Amino acid sequence: MWALRAGHFYLRSSHNVMALELRYCKNLFNYSRRESREVTVGNVKVGGGNPVVVQSMITSDTRDTHACVKEVLQLADAGCEVVRITAQTRKYAENLENIRNGVRAANCGVPLVADIHFKPDAAFEAAKWVEKVRVNPGNYADKKKFEIREYTDEQYEEELRRIREEFTPLITLCKDLGRAVRIGTNHGSLSDRIMNRYGDTPLGMVESALEFARIARDEKFHNFVFSMNQSKGYD
Fold first, then answer.
1. Dist. CA 79–CA 87, nearest whole Å
2. Is the model's pLDDT at 210 over the cut of 80?
3. What is the domain partition of the chain in residue ranges?
4. Per residue in 92-107, is it b (16+ CB within 10 Å) or e — as a string?
5. Burial 151-176, CB ≥16 within 10 A → b, else e
6. CA nearest 135: which of 194, 86, 178?
7. In which band, very low, low, confident or very high, does the pLDDT at 234 lie, cut at 50, 70 and 90?
8. pTM for the complete prediction?
9. Which residues is 9 bridged to in the sheet?
10. Rounded distance, CA 182 to CA 112, Å?
């Protein structure tokens, strides 16, 4: 079982505790910013030596163009530098064109982000209209069925090939259009495949994100960021 203590991941068993070099910060008591690659989101630079960027999300129905434009402009006026909009399906994603046009017509250049769950076709559509697309590795190509299954190495690799087939077209489009991608994992939506190999652990969240990052890098696409969200503590 994996455990998290004092900034390290540990592999814990009934016989011993083996420390692994997976430290996520240099010192728990002194702030030190981790060096990262600069990522471009529209007219905003994220990471590298840039200041922390303020982002928020609207709550209006994505099909309601007027309400969405109004809320985006309000956030931008309040100092928000990036605005996220949910796009549950391709139909919702199609209206991002109208929302973007309305925001730009108001002389507002704040970058827009599409928040995608479950639907690769929605992500592909959204990338045509907004500066950044967020995907969740746990449900972008995998379907969570809460199944307990032991994967052989061959079966695991076959699943990774299927994910590559689903994710590569989005990466190609984002590279062509100069978009950014956010690979965002949630502990509550890790795929059955990840859960059965790594369990509900921080390492499982990280590996879920890295699977998608490797695909992006294989395609020479590096304009992406990570996010990790979990609502439970670990021993």
1. 23
2. yes
3. 39-229
4. bbbbbebbbebbeeee
5. eeeeeeeebeeebbebbeebbebbbe
6. 86
7. low
8. 0.84
9. 4
10. 12
pLDDT at 2 over 60: no
pLDDT one-digit tens code per residue, 58-94: 999 999 999 999 999 999 999 999 999 999 999 999 9
Q: Which two tokens stand for residue 190?
A: 């890790």
Token code pair at residue 139: 């449900």
Looking at CATH, the fold of the domain delimited by 39-229 is given as TIM Barrel (3.20.20)
What does the alpha-carbon distance between residue 193 and residue 166 come to, in Å, rounded to a whole number?
16
CA distance 75 to 164: 36
Residue 129 CB neighbours (<10 A):
21
SS3 for 119? coil
Structure confidence by residue, pLDDT tens digits, 28-51: 788 888 889 999 999 999 999 999
Note the helical H segments in 54-191: 65-77, 90-94, 96-105, 120-126, 137-140, 153-177
- Measured CA to CA, the distance from residue 82 to residue 59 in angstroms comes to 15
